[in-house]
């Protein structure tokens, strides 16, 4: 493809004239890997086609929501029917109840939930509720976990444990993040020290239990168990941000994975997004009735949204949730994801490339590191230039993974065994470009 006929480049140039960086969300710009972003023309099943008409096997799936692949017939039909009935009413609908019922049915920790339009909004509102319910201001988050771009969450660790965080974005006043304590993921001693010092002031601990925003890092079972104990002991709420993992790693999300290993385990609040909207702007946060009833209009914690519970988004989410609740859905998805991860690992080994990988349900991650990292600073030891080379070698072979080494990957039920085989073959060739 010569430069003059590359529609992706043409569109990128046009976009950059009008949209900052040419994109409406930064990671899409390919800045971590270089090159021109692919502008998507259309998508179907496990594939999308770019503006040049080139086909890719898609392992991003809109960053997680497309668990059934693109344009699943049942979902498409539900959305088309909903569109005919009206785009938005700003008044309650039966479908919001149905969606809430479908979510609550699978998550024992969620007795009530509130629907919103993005994961950012859901996490921000969950934190406001945690603060409102406990009457405390301080919160704990972990380095490498992302909870959307609300001001109080755009924060990095201070110089020591006793100090609170610093903003990671211009435009966030230091005063806004002064209540956010940023700790190292999987560090039990640090968490214990934080509770010993600030326990009585902590409203909540928010965590990605299987962190997909530092590629794929699991909270260890002892760490999660201790986090649960400390929150209970000190009256802080344990907030599971399952925007990415909810209905993605299994029907009961990451909390279901930990409940299998820690008897009786439940978080106090759950933040959801991505899969529950099936690709439409829909997210939620939920928890026990007594807590959720502190929200307006019943309680003193204000939260609202013009498009919340949108009728087209709820139709899309509901149809998606009904499909993934079919018996055997997650078993098949997990098997496929495992085959992919094992295939990539074998290909890297044969090429002599340092590599480690993990997966759960339809979510996976890999590192150009010999061992799986346990926290953000270990993730950052990954070889970024080598990742950039691998990314482009895969892209050139029709495989589209996240254009940054700190992002997880997603397999959908539309990915066939042949897609996985072709991907592993492409990776075999791509790893050769990294071999010494
Ligand atoms: N929380 C987690 C764990 C996420 O992965 C994301 C987005 O990737 C968010 C929150 C923010 O969601 P949204 O991009 O819908 O605002």
TrEMBL record:
Location(s), subcellular: Cytoplasm
GO (cellular component) term, any one: cytoplasm
Cofactor: pyridoxal 5'-phosphate
Gene it is expressed from: hemL
Assembly behavior: Homodimer.
One MF term in the entry's GO annotations: glutamate-1-semialdehyde 2,1-aminomutase activity
Protein name: Glutamate-1-semialdehyde 2,1-aminomutase
Top-rank taxon: Bacteria
Assigned EC number: 5.4.3.8
Similarity section: Belongs to the class-III pyridoxal-phosphate-dependent aminotransferase family. HemL subfamily.
Catalyzed reaction equations: (S)-4-amino-5-oxopentanoate = 5-aminolevulinate
